[in-house]
Design goal:
The protein is α+β, with helices and mostly antiparallel strands. The protein contains nine helices and nine strands. It is 35% helix and 21% strand. The strands form three sheets. The protein has a five-stranded antiparallel sheet, with helices on one face. A two-stranded antiparallel sheet has the order 6-7. The radius of gyration is 28 Å and the shape is elongated. The structure holds zinc ion. Zinc ion binds next to loops.
Length: 279
C-alpha cells in the first residue's frame, strides 16, 4: 500500500474541525509537512505528548504521541525534610487516565505527513475540552504572547485573545476559561526580560529629571506631583503662552488621555481649549 492512497485534505476546514480530526483519529490523514507543522499541530500540541520515535535509514521519521492524560511517571511526592514554606504545591495527577495514541509519519521526499491511530489505540477516555485543563494549545499561547508583547494589562489581553480566538479562529471553547492569572504568567515570561531592568532602576528617576529639564529649557512651567494614597505620580507641564490661553478661554476645557507614551506606561493627559484659531 502506498502511504498516500487517500484522504489528502483539499477543502478548507476550520481550526475547530482540525482539532477534532486530530483528537480521535478515525481515518488516516495526509497533509503537507509544512501545513501540518504550521496549521495543524499547534492546535493540538496540548493534547499530545511525545511517546516514542524512530528514524528510518532513508531519513523518514515516525513518532508516536500519547494523550497527556497518560503520564509515565507518577508526580513526585513531597520530601519529608523540606520545611513547609519551601514546598511547592504539586497537583498530583492520577496516571493512566487515558491511553489514546497516534502515529505521525513524515515522508521527506514527498514532503508529507501521515497521521493515524497507533495500532489498537482506544479513543480518548475524556472529551476534547478536558485536554486544555492540562495545557493550553500552542495556538492559544501564541495568541497570548502576541498580545502580551504589546504590554497591555492582563484583563485587556484576556479579552483580546478571547475575541480573536472566537471570531476569527472558531476556537472559542479553547479560551473560554482563559484566566487572568494564566495570562499574567505568560506575560511575565514574555515581558519579564524586557521589564526587569525597569524595576527599581534608578534610571527612571534620571529619565524624569532629564525630561523636566528639557521642558524647562524650552520655557515650560513644570510641576511634579504625587498622591501616595492612590500611588499616582507624574508631572504637569505647560508653556506660559498656553497658560494665558487657558485663563482666557478655559470656560470650555476638554481633556484626553493617551497611553503607552513611554516604556514606563505613563499616560499623557492633554487639555484642550477653543480659542480664535479653533481647538
Ligand atoms: Zn486522552
Amino acid at each position: 500500500m502506498t502511504p498516500f492512497a487517500s484522504n489528502i485534505i483539499n477543502t478548507p476546514i476550520s481550526e475547530k474541525q482540525k482539532r477534532i480530526l486530530l483528537f480521535n483519529v478515525n481515518q488516516p490523514l495526509e497533509l503537507l509537512i509544512e501545513e501540518f507543522d504550521k496549521e495543524w499541530w499547534p492546535l493540538v500540541s496540548n493534547i499530545w505528548t511525545s511517546f516514542s520515535c524512530k528514524n528510518n535509514v532513508n531519513g523518514d521519521l515516525w513518532k508516536v504521541f500519547v494523550c497527556r492524560f497518560k503520564k509515565h511517571n507518577k508526580s513526585s511526592t513531597r520530601k519529608e525534610d523540606i520545611p513547609n514554606e519551601k514546598c511547592h504545591i504539586t497537583k498530583i495527577r492520577p496516571a493512566d487516565l487515558c491511553s489514546a495514541k497516534i502515529k505521525v509519519q513524515r515522508y521527506f521526499s514527498e514532503q508529507k505527513v501521515r497521521i493515524e491511530r497507533f495500532k489498537d489505540s482506544p479513543d480518548h477516555s475524556h472529551p476534547i475540552e478536558d485536554s486544555k485543563k492540562l495545557k493550553r494549545s500552542e495556538v492559544v499561547r501564541e495568541l497570548v504572547m502576541q498580545e502580551a508583547v504589546k504590554n497591555y494589562r492582563p484583563p485587556e489581553i484576556v479579552s483580546a485573545v478571547k475575541e480573536i480566538a472566537t471570531e476569527t479562529l472558531d476556537l472559542g471553547e479553547c479560551v473560554k476559561e482563559l484566566r487572568r492569572k494564566e495570562v499574567t504568567n505568560i506575560k511575565y515570561k514574555v515581558r519579564g526580560p524586557l521589564d526587569t531592568h525597569l524595576v527599581g532602576d534608578p534610571k527612571r528617576e534620571l529619565d524624569i529629571r532629564k525630561a523636566i529639564s528639557f521642558l524647562k529649557n524650552r520655557g515650560y512651567l513644570v510641576e511634579r506631583y504625587e498622591i501616595p494614597d492612590l500611588s499616582t505620580y507624574g508631572f504637569v507641564f505647560m508653556h506660559p503662552n498656553h497658560l494665558k490661553n487657558l485663563e482666557q478661554h478655559g470656560w470650555l476645557s476638554l481633556i484626553d488621555s493617551t497611553h503607552k507614551t513611554n516604556r514606563y506606561d505613563y499616560r499623557l493627559f492633554t487639555l484642550y481649549i477653543r480659542n480664535s484659531y479653533g481647538c
